[in-house]
Amino acid sequence: MVPLMAASTVPSESAPAKTASGEASPAGSGTERPTPSLRELFVGFLSVAVVAFGGVLPIARRAVVERYQWVDSDEFTELVGLAQFLPGPNIVNLSVVIGARFRGVPGAIAAFSGLTLAPAVIVILAGTLFARYSDVPAVSDLLAGLAAGAAGLVISMAGRMGEPIWRRREWRDLGIVAVSFIGIVVLGLPLPWVMLSLAPVSIALAWWAIR
Amino acid sequence: MRDDSILGQLATHFLLISLLAVGGANAVLPEMHRQVVEVAGWMTNEQFAQTYAIAQAVPGPNVLVVTLIGWHVAGFAGALVSTLAMCGPTCVLAYVVGGVWYRFREAKWRRAIQGGLVPLTIGLIAASGFLLAEGAARTVPTALYTAVTVAVLLFTRVSPLWMLFGGGALGLLRLI
């Protein structure tokens, strides 16, 4: 079943067909990354949101880094770090930061609305439907299988994000990865504690490494 | 009058929650549960659990659990007020900090903060993935499916959607 499906994911629609919207980027030359228009930001985040089952971040990474190539892989990891450190829903923060970087306040609003409007309508419809069909066992079987895949998706995303650190054998960073994982999973510490105690240590180590 | 006060309570509640939500919406779920079920009594425990499951099962950001709670408590206005309270102030903060962040991208303090946050972020995502996997593993085949998904997505370019649909289909057939 797998090889058939693989064909559809090769990022073939990235470079051409960028002229579809009137607001194409002025920089047409060579290696520059495309600057998305408001419409592209809205549609981009909308297309991420409506297929993002069980977590938006992995889907967003595929779209923003691989399909649209708005930011590169390292920058995406940095932006996720920023979005997580700021209070509020991570992926919402991420959409605002990316939208704002390219198109200011309107860009932030376009990205945010693309991300949230359709899913908000869908979740309300689903809530209404579920209240009516909650006693059908097939519904819970479906949800259980979906959840198993979704969990694997999140773990694999951590793996992909950690790949550069692993490849460069940066033991300092690998140590922080391990300690934060152990703090949450093994010790069951509340997330704010883990963040607020490890962040200063990790930042100090990074500062020291830059010297 | 009564509706107004409920909307006000929803707004205040989710605004405070959002400011605590360092690390995302899932991190403040226990606090949401305490407020919504135990303090305000807007939902029963079962209603809260179902609401969370639905928000997870539909596509979109997991902050949508807030939208659904607002909908349950006060209809359309409740959904709107709750979502905006949860997202609005922190969006403004993200906008401001995001701009500053980009402007000082060459500064040493900025690179140190950035470099320090990256491994923390990866560790926390791995941890939440593991916790999700634990919650999802109702049988051994279910846990195996999660492991297979990790391997496929790490080592091939298969779209994550196929692994999700595959999981849903296998679950529906009661194979996992």
TrEMBL record, chain B:
Keywords: Cell membrane, Membrane, Transmembrane, Transmembrane helix. The chain crosses the membrane at residues 69-96, 117-137, 143-173. It is found in: Cell membrane. It is a multi-pass membrane protein. Its main location: membrane. InterPro entries: CHR_Transporter, Chromate_transpt. Belongs to the chromate ion transporter (CHR) (TC 2.A.51) family. PANTHER family: CHROMATE TRANSPORT PROTEIN-RELATED, CHROMATE TRANSPORTER. This is Chromate transporter. It comes from Ancylobacter oerskovii. The lineage of its organism: Bacteria, Pseudomonadati, Pseudomonadota, Alphaproteobacteria, Hyphomicrobiales.
